[in-house]
Amino acid sequence: MTASRENSSSFRNHTLTVLAIVLLFLFLWWADGSMAEDLGLSFLPEGLNGYEVQILNLVAVYGILAISLNIIYGFTGMFSLGHAGFMAIGAYVSALCVLTPDQKEMMWIIDEILPSLAALHTPFWFSVILGGLVATVFALLIGIPVLRLGGDYLGIATLGFSEIIRVLIVNATPITNGSLGIKGIPCHTDLFTSFIWLLVVVFCTVRLLSSNFGNVLKAVRDDEIAAQVMGINVFHTKLFSFCLGAFLAGVGGALLGNLLTTIDPKMFTFLLTYNILMIVVAGGLGSISGSIIGSVIITVLLEWLRVVEEPLNLGFVEIPGIPGMRMVVFSVCLLVIILYRREGIMGMREITWDGIAAFLSRFGRKKENRA
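The structure assignment produced for this chain is given below.
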């Protein structure tokens, strides 16, 4: 009887997951504005405008980046501030792969690009994976000496690594075009691409964390000494988690570069890491669902708060625009979250079909009792 219920619940969950994915892609098809044209249904409302589509893309990319940082910080307990460096590596590697030789020849005007890079031209999907792999190599090199530190020391060391990467990008002109950055990157990151990557990352991360190795990560996070006593190689576990987070950060950086079509060293400062960290903290450390919810809320909030930087006319007084005011208000909101809901929106909980079914069942019973 118990096995039959488990099979029924599993079938229901898989069916609902497939249905949710289908509905998501139908929404993306409509949002892209091509559903009515493809189906020949003129009565369908038009999709979203370019600005709203851009925000949707950013939600998906930031969701990937939040999950990547959550693996390192939320599930393994390592306080890392080097995410912007891994994102920069992924963005630059992908850009060098997708640009044509003619574009590179015209763009590198201070120093001539390296001949091996000038002839490099790969498909977009390969460039994203390669960006993640190169970021993983750098994570391995920095992780071996740095991950023996802990707490704030690890955060400071990874922050220093991120700044070193940014300085190298500025000075390695034959490779990165220096402070001029790279422009004219083909806009390969559309709604379907970004959300397919998000779904793949969510699926693989959920499978990993629900396995025995996921329990190992959580054991290291909760108590390193107890994990060592149980026979867990804490250093190897940390190194794997750090490299996995760096790989996903490189993938996110590659997608972001191909979305914005322009990258330069100023993009990959500590502020970018701070934004991703805030998504993780607001959503909930140790929650994949929280990372997705946090990416939606924080991305929309950051765009909506642009209004506070514009001049405001109240009729009796005119308030001039204050550049940077958006981040001040955003930081105040963050302080409120930390002070009054330190665990974030989801805490360590996840949204599951079983949880939704249990909630609806309790809600239904309450209504019956009231009646």
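Interim note for the steering committee: The radius of gyration is 23 Å. DSSP finds 17 helices and four strands in the chain.
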